[in-house]
UniProtKB/TrEMBL annotation:
Keywords: Cobalamin biosynthesis, Oxidoreductase. GO terms for molecular function: oxidoreductase activity. Its EC number is 1.3.1.106. It holds the Pfam family CbiJ. This is Cobalt-precorrin-6A reductase. Pathway: Cofactor biosynthesis; adenosylcobalamin biosynthesis.
Length: 252
């Protein structure tokens, strides 16, 4: 019996995994971190594999797990795995569907900005003399290292040794870091921003599941600007924002 390869790691991928199992399908979920394993139900129809897959190993992965369809529910900013999965789908003639979490409708607040890239943010004069809270992922914190002496930078990262090491090497001292796994309760987010006297928030366009809407609401409430970096542009063979449509695709 062929199985679904579910590229996971997001809250939506947990819903998709549950839906696939309820539909009677066997599913292999791939995630990059051990902590993400706990997102998924423990049942015979579901296998969770931890670790980064290389393009060179996908043929063997497909054969050993009898993959018959690919459902890509990776994070909107995880371009590399999506590109690998699309290329593998086309080369092996295996159906591919992208589940893309719906975007958040931008606020009409004049203080909020949407920028097309981190390069635009960092080559402009948006951060100078600000107390900036960064929720952009640890991998992008090194980009902000040149700004450590021009702004007061704070960051939230995942609670892992690797994330903390990247942040510290990028110049973030321990008193300007918080390590916590999302979702973050609104009351805690608000208290943290107030404690650090944040005057600007920078985030990625990661949808409601990534807390984007809540950040917009809190910035409006506190009267501080929010800068949102738009998602990387990707062209998918097939794409949906609807979880049930994605499950139906795998059943067809």
């Amino acid at each position: 019996m062929s199985k679904v390869w579910l590229i996971g790691g997001t809250s939506e991928s947990r819903q998709l995994a549950q839906g696939l199992v309820e539909a009677g399908l066997e599913c292999v979920v791939t995630v990059t971190t051990e902590s993400a394993r706990s997102l998924y139900p423990n049942c015979p129809q579901l296998t969770v594999k931890v670790g980064k897959l290389q393009a060179s190993s996908l043929d063997e992965f497909q054969r050993s797990h009898h993959i018959g369809v690919i459902l890509d529910a990776s994070h909107p900013w995880a371009q590399q795995i999506s590109q690998q999965a699309i290329a593998f789908s086309e080369g092996s003639n295996i159906p591919y569907m992208r589940y893309e979490r719906p975007p958040v409708t931008p606020s009409e607040c004049d203080r909020n900005l949407t920028l097309d890239s981190f390069a635009t943010l960092l080559t402009g004069d948006y951060l100078s003399n600000r107390r900036v809270f960064l929720t952009v992922g640890s991998q992008r914190l090194p980009l902000f290292q040149p700004w450590q002496h021009q702004a007061t930078l704070f960051a939230r990262v995942l609670p892992s040794i690797k994330s903390l090491q990247i942040a510290q090497e990028a110049g973030f001292s321990s008193d300007r870091l918080i390590a916590i796994r999302p979702p973050v309760p609104e009351a805690l987010e608000l208290a943290l921003w107030q404690h650090w006297q944040i005057s600007l928030v920078v985030t990625k366009a990661s949808g409601n599941a990534g807390g984007e809407a809540m950040k917009r609401q809190l910035c409006d409430r506190l009267g501080i600007p929010l800068i949102t970096i738009t998602r990387p542009k990707m062209t998918y063979p097939q794409e949906t924002h609807d979880i049930q449509e994605a499950i139906n695709f795998c059943c067809s």
